[in-house]
Structure formats: structure tokens, C-alpha cells
Amino acid sequence: MSNDEKVVSLKRTKTHKAEEKNVTNHELVYCSFCGRPNTQVVKMVKGPGVSICSECTMIAVQYLILEDKMPTGEAQKILDAFWSKV
Fold first, then answer.
1. What's the CA gap between 66 and 43, in Å, rounded?
2. For residue 34, what are the domain limits?
3. Which residues of 43-69 are buried (b: 16+ CB within 10 A; e: fewer)?
4. Strands of the chain, DSSP E
5. Other C-beta atoms lying within 10 Å of the C-beta of residue 19
6. What share of the chain is helix, strand, coil (3-state, %, to 5)?
């Protein structure tokens, strides 16, 4: 998987498609939460001024689910599937 497939831009501007194509194999995008570059993570979501990697996203989702004390069976399956692939 090339790096330009690993970075998804959520920026909503008229130049969105052009900017999305400018993410090349050589451009590093860093996670605003853990600081890792897109070359060291599964996927990266890039927003206006921030980026978050798939691992930090799943940690956040897991925290939000567990805040309710017990994840539903379906939520637990999703978490288990993700963490088994990382």
C-alpha cells in the first residue's frame, strides 16, 4: 500500500481533490496525537490543521465505548478485529 493510499484528507475546499492528489509517497503527514508519520501507521486521516492515525482513532473509540463500562458485543467484535491486525 503506497502512502498516498494511507492518507485521507477531510479538508473541504474547492482545491480538495488537487490537494488530496498532492500527498505523495515522499510527503510525511504526522499524527497530531501520537506524533508518528504516515509511514509508521496503518492509515492517517488528515483534517484542517490536524491529522489522526488509525491507531489513535481506535484508542479514542475504545475509550468512548468503555466509558459506558461495557462495550456491546458488536462494538467488541470491531475492536477485537482491529487490534488483531495491528
1. 23
2. 3-85
3. ebbbeeeebbbbbbbbeeebeebeeee
4. 7-9, 44-47, 50-53
5. 13
6. 45, 15, 40
Q: Supply the pTM of this predicted model.
A: 0.59
CA distance 44 to 53: 4
Model confidence pLDDT, tens digit, residues 24-80: 556 899 999 999 999 999 999 999 999 999 999 988 888 877 776 666 777 778 778
Based on the structure, what is the number of domains in the chain?
1
- The tens digit of pLDDT for each residue in 13-23 reads 444 443 444 45
Check residue 30 and give its pLDDT: 96
- State the residue for C-alpha cell 489513535: 56
Scanning the structure block, which residue is given the C-alpha cell 483534517?
Answer: 47
